[in-house]
Please model this.
Amino acid sequence: MNVAVDRRTLTVGWPSGREHRFHVLWLRDNCPCGDCRHESGQRLLDTRSLPDDLELVGASVDGTVRVSFSDGHASSFDADWLLSFASPGAAVRRRRLWGAELQDELPTARFVDVAGGGAFLRDWLAAVDELGFAVLTGCGTERGTVTRVAELFGYVRETNYGRLFDVKTVVNPTNLAYTGLGLGAHTDNPYRDPVPTLQLLHCLASSADGGENTLVDGFRVAQDLPLEDFELLSGCAIVFRYSDAETELETETPVIVADVRGDVQSVHYNTRSAQAFRLPDDMVGEYYEAYQRFGRMLEAPEYRIQLKLAPGDLFIVDNLRVLHGRTGYTSSGGERHLQGCYADRDGLRSKLAVLSRG
Amino acid sequence: MNVAVDRRTLTVGWPSGREHRFHVLWLRDNCPCGDCRHESGQRLLDTRSLPDDLELVGASVDGTVRVSFSDGHASSFDADWLLSFASPGAAVRRRRLWGAELQDELPTARFVDVAGGGAFLRDWLAAVDELGFAVLTGCGTERGTVTRVAELFGYVRETNYGRLFDVKTVVNPTNLAYTGLGLGAHTDNPYRDPVPTLQLLHCLASSADGGENTLVDGFRVAQDLPLEDFELLSGCAIVFRYSDAETELETETPVIVADVRGDVQSVHYNTRSAQAFRLPDDMVGEYYEAYQRFGRMLEAPEYRIQLKLAPGDLFIVDNLRVLHGRTGYTSSGGERHLQGCYADRDGLRSKLAVLSRG
Model:
């Protein structure tokens, strides 16, 4: 290993031949000493206080890399930590895109195992993180169980629908989810800000005909879209809206939200709550072409899996990625009753990270 | 008013001379009849089912615009509703950017008024929607009040910090917010996904010296940034992280998130939880230039207002827009005790919209 400095740059060469240049402000800002960094890992140093004309005045290496600065400060960096920044690109996401082939290997665990925590809970949460959904069986049919499952890893997101909500046929539905109609693949509550990032649905009764749940990986479908469709759906915002006597929710978002690298970050698709598009009139035709292609791919058998939930079964979806729908059912042949709740990804990923430690 | 059709386009001319062209699929998709649209306002028609080769076969106008389609369907549209889509651009946001001049007209209301609902609550919420913050006085000093205030308009977002959290000097702080140090302007919890969109802080005691709260409109500062800085801060994602014995949260986001029009959608700035930037080495220097300029502008007197909270005072901020900080304090001269909680914008905007009806 070798190091070289000029006024503003530290160049580190590793035995592998890899070389990386570190900027003086980056180094000073990331000093790990007890004056600059709290034991909690939070930065004590306010980055804003660093002088713009800071310079490097020396460097040495002996397993740790030591540098000294023109403000009189000295820092020691772990060489392996520095090396981790010499690799191109960002940390790899544990994201596996899927289609209908996943029907044969549905990520499923038993409530009794997962509720015990430890490796069972970790593996179930890891499936949600990687695939965007997972199934839990043997949850029983006690009302309120769905929020207990959410609390195994995080926090319920209460909304105007309550801490939990019932999905069954009712006489005067204000929301189509509560009628017996089939529902095409959709994400929930795109009219909310922020959109709930997780949804859980727990089956209490299912003697009605039909009413099977369908799931599709929206990230996979977005990736398979022709580029010009992807650009239209990620480049134009549309409005989603929900309104009843006590509620009025409206949010504007593209159907596909891409991050700064152009990777899909979230998908918002819901034909029930989408409002009339407000687009330049010469764009409406091509936008509909992209929107229809995406919507139909979301229903295509090669992307879709199906779940016939039995009483006591529950599934969780990443609501920014995996769309869900259901086939139609009638209550004349029986009843179908689900309870659902919303939660958020930060709690899930935190629990997964903590359970994965050591 | 006059209408003309060709196979795929309805052209409407208004008395003002304005003319707009409506695409056949847009019209069919937005048919307001009872077969296509549920009384709740949700679309019954699944857009995906519309034939790609749908055509217009006729149109007439007599206050309402009537069109008939090649699939046999006929629709009637309110002419004023159609006109609203003939205006360029999106609906105007009630967003007023501000700087230090707002010190003289802080949006403030009394708890006793706002808790009564109606116009007082509406106006207080409207200030949060427009300015990104508001103050509430006379809340008393009962613990737990902060969540009661959140429940006046929405729902508490529970996190690993609890439904509410205490901010005061403690002996073994795991988070810098709980020490007596000053804190530069920051947004809360950028390491969370989704980031809490609202934060409330309620003052229970404030006999310590210092500890004044500072607020700055991050959207205003972002708007005043040189364009090349704006592009760097909105074009590169950085990682924020928080970790303790039971929690591990990490999220990647640009410091400035722009929407598809290039307008600022959110700001995430927190020097404590920002992780070492992972950028191409030839970009680090210019990124720091932009990051430092933005960070220092957030502390500049011309952008900043200051609140000296008395016991019983509370403030709420839009945590994606308004940054907060505080001057340092010591507990030797007294104590300072705040309680805080998180909530979300959808509940607030829904309550505001409902209170603004009719």
Summary: Chain B touches chain A through 88 residues (CB under 8 Å). Chain B has nine helices and 23 strands.
